[in-house]
Amino acid sequence: MLKIGLFAFGGGYAMISFFENEFVAKRKWLSADEFSDMVALAESTPGPLAINSATYIGYKTGGVSGSVLCTVAVCIPSFTVIYLISLFFNAFLNIGWVAAAFKGIRTGVIFLILSAGVKMFIKLPKTVFNIVIFAATVACMIAFSVLSVNFSSVFYILISGAVGLTVYLIKRLKDRKKDKSDDIS
Known about the structure:
Elements: H1 2-7, H2 12-26, H3 32-44, H4 49-87, H5 89-93, H6 96-123, H7 128-146, H8 153-184
Helix pairs in contact: 2-4, 2-6, 3-4
């Protein structure tokens, strides 16, 4: 977690591919499905994605002490760098090579986020429900961007979760009705 916190620029979304590479591909501490569920849960709960993910992985592998250790480890590099930068922030921003480095880092972060999204989409089961939710979300994101509508990504998550829960409850009600009709006959 300390290594990921130190080298993963761009925040939680950029860290997704680092988490997946380290804990799914290399260490095999999480399955691909469990990783996708973890990202969905970490994104839909309060707090930064990277911290929620680190806490989950730490808890899964080492209990409460593991969750505390992983959470602190993923936060230490960011905290240290931001603290040091804050001491001489204005002078730091005026250094030409620092400004150029940050422009390059921003470009790299876009790739990391896109890469994580594509990998998760490829592994997503191609059910009608998943495809409809994905297509509707992408369409809304594009339309809202083109029309300059300010719409928080949190709402995409909440709406998708509500739709998923509604579909689940409808399916459960249908299954109960079917079971009752089978018991009667």
